[in-house]
Amino acid sequence: MLVDLATHLPIHWHYHPDQRTNEKTITQRWLAQLPLGGLLVFDLGLFSFPLFDAFTETGKYFLTRLRAKTAYRT
Q1: pLDDT at 57
Q2: Neighbours of 40 (CB within 10 A)
Q3: Contact between residue 24 and residue 31 where contact means Cβ atoms under 8 Å apart
Q4: In angstroms, rounded to a whole number, what is the distance separating the alpha carbons of residues 16 and 20?
Q5: Where are the beta strands (DSSP E) in the chain?
Q6: In the beta sheet, which residues pair with residue 2?
């Protein structure tokens, strides 16, 4: 479910009858529902560099924690 952080009201929701379905299968739909310049906050279950690239390429933003074993340079 996408929820507006300011109002706490739902914006859009997706349902899949198979409870074993991973959220990564519907991230493209979430990205399409997010407005330009929008921010999506999610947990480490969606940590995916291709997903991060998709946000950058479409002018949208994300906030998540960094996995402990992620290598990076500043």
Answers
A1: 94
A2: 19
A3: no
A4: 9
A5: 2-3, 10-12, 39-41, 61-63
A6: 12
Provide the residue type at 41 as one letter: V
- Nearest-angstrom CA–CA distance, 22 and 59: 25
**Helix %, strand %, coil % of the chain (to 5):** 30, 15, 55
The helix or strand, by DSSP H or E, that contains position 63, with its residue range, turns out to be strand 61-63
CA distance 6 to 19: 29
Tokens of 27: 């991230």
Q: What is the pLDDT of residues 22-72, one digit of tens each?
A: 777 778 888 888 888 888 888 887 888 898 999 999 999 999 998 999 988
| Tokens encoding 58 | 């479409």
Q: Which of 66, 14, 21 is nearest to 42 (CA)?
A: 66
CA 29 to chain centre: 10
Measured in whole angstroms, the distance separating CA 65 from the mean position of its chain's CA atoms is: 12
